[in-house]
Backbone:
């Protein structure tokens, strides 16, 4: 009899626990000055369904059997600032996004790497930032299971596309370097349907250019690079998009802020939140979208 009671108790304990899927995207990196390198996308960790995490890696593990009454602290990272008006400056990485709470392993997406100004290297991060057009410096590396590497710039005055900064890595993988016949475009982000419809996030920024041509950011919020006497464009807010590099004698853009999304059975949803996340439903599930930091109590 005692054995049967033990089994029944175990079943009840399992039924009480939450399973929560999540998408955690950090802030994108800022971009460099004067043919500057672009910002890398914020780190991208996805546990929903069979969708991939950053750098086209496997699906992360959802939060399982989370006890009732646990407060999950949600941190949404801001985008990185552009580099100072100096050919040797580096821009700032984006800030981390995270889910933390008692009894769970903290899930942290790293801020995207900042881009380097003309003679400076890109920074490593969730996805790496591009370096400046002086290719003696290096591009920043991405982080495994979060984002790809930035690319190196191009520094020869020949062909269609003169000197250009490197582009930012994206959630989908590594950025591709520019050349005399190709622009240094940002790497693309990844699409997720965790909210009930497909949305692409985590695009890398495009490199800054010497001439009038401009390099697009990657799909999913990457900022476009600046052309001649043109400031780089910002990454899109709440996508983790990297910023576009500054054009000739111009500053780069600011990285896009991140986002944290939770999805769970509506029958388990407590309704207790702070930080004003948007709350929607899809099928049997409730979805919380945190565009700024807050909490959810299970």
Residues:
């Amino acid at each position: 009899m005692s054995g049967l009671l033990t089994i029944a108790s175990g079943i009840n304990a399992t039924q009480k626990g939450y399973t929560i899927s999540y998408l955690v995207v950090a802030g994108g990196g800022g971009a460099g000055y004067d043919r500057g390198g672009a910002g890398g996308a914020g780190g991208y960790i996805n546990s929903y369904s069979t969708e991939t995490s950053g750098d086209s890696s496997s699906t992360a593990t959802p939060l399982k059997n989370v006890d009732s009454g646990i407060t999950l602290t949600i941190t949404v990272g801001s985008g990185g600032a552009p580099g100072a008006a100096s050919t040797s400056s580096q821009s700032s990485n984006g800030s981390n996004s995270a889910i933390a709470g008692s009894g769970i392993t903290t899930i942290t997406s790293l801020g995207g790497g900042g881009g380097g100004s003309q003679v400076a290297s890109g920074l490593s991060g969730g996805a790496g930032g591009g370096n400046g057009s002086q290719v003696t410096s290096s591009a920043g590396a991405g982080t495994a299971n979060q984002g790809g590497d930035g690319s190196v710039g191009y520094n020869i005055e020949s062909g269609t596309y003169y000197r250009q900064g490197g582009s930012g890595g994206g959630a989908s993988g590594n950025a591709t370097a520019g050349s005399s016949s190709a622009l240094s475009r940002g790497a693309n982000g990844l699409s997720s349907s965790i909210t009930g419809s497909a949305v692409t996030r985590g695009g890398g920024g495009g490199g800054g250019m010497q001439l009038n041509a401009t390099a697009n950011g990657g799909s999913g919020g990457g900022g476009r690079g600046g052309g001649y006497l043109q400031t780089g464009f910002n990454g899109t807010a709440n996508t983790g998009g990297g910023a576009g590099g500054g054009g000739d004698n111009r500053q780069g853009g600011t990285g896009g802020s991140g986002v944290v999304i939770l999805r769970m059975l509506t029958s388990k949803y407590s309704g207790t939140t702070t930080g004003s996340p948007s709350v929607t439903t899809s099928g049997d599930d409730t979805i919380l979208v945190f565009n700024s930091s807050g909490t959810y109590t299970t």
The chain has one helix and 13 strands. The first strand starts at residue 18 and ends at 25. The chain has one domain: 22-298. Residues 22-298 form one domain.
